[in-house]
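Every protein is a chain of amino acids, and every chain bends into a shape of its own. The protein below has been through that process, and both of its lines are reproduced in full.
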Amino acid sequence: MVQKLYTQRSEEAVSTVVSAILLLALVIALITSINVRYVPQWTEDAEHLHMRSAIKDMSQLKSGVDLMLAASATGDESFSAGMPLTMGGGEVPFFNPSSSSSTLLLNTRMINMYLTTELNGVTQESGDLMKNMGSVDFLSNNDHYPNQRFSYECGGLAIGQNDRSVMKMVPHISVRRSVNDTIDVTVDAVKLSGLQRSISSNSMEEVYFTYSDSDSIYNGSVLVDELTLLVETENSMAWQGYLGRLMQASHLDAGQYSINSNATATILYISGDAGADIRPRVNVHDFNVSLNIL
């Protein structure tokens, strides 16, 4: 009788241990299944939301500089403003609480603009004033969602992915034919000066802009026969697409302009019908850019 009771208790103990092991195995299998099947998708969705937040921050940065540029027309005094950027994102509570980081780079790429005009066979160039235009680049470091690059350069905001790029917010360039058939070309280029800086972070960072001054290369007082604008940048595809749409909207004849592009540069060429009938207005607006006011 005692032996039977002992055996029964032993079987109950073994059954309890086996049940616990099976339950633990079930929990582990469930967690593993969630981590393998669902967490990557949840992380990708969270990183996608972060990319939407990043483009919103960069768009506000571009708009903020535009407002400062408009305010500069009212006087010559210097003024400053800080633009916050959310660097981290992609966390999934309980399963993947860590945030992916991003990299912010200031003036680390060589970007140049060259403006050349010709009048009666005499060529005039913009010189060094439009060289080293500077940039603010936001590079994501995602685990699952495709990495993207947001670049503020020469007054425009481009989005790049792999070797492709598009212009999300356009720079200050206009081309239009006036009532007397004069071709008005206006360029307000934003030049960013300051030290080269880079930082990787998953928190909040601030890009600080200080307006310095503006220089005029052409003020619209002279007419020229031909005009060539060259933009040297890694985002040449974005500039090619933007300038193509710009010229289509200008209603110039197809023979009056051409756009050529390669991996590192885009060239816009405009020629008048006969005689000097292109009126350029070209200004370069200088901003000092720094990171976290340092």
In short: Residues 2-72 form the longest helix (71 residues). Residues 2-291 form one domain. The two ends are 86 Å apart (CA to CA). Helices lie at 2-72, 236-250.
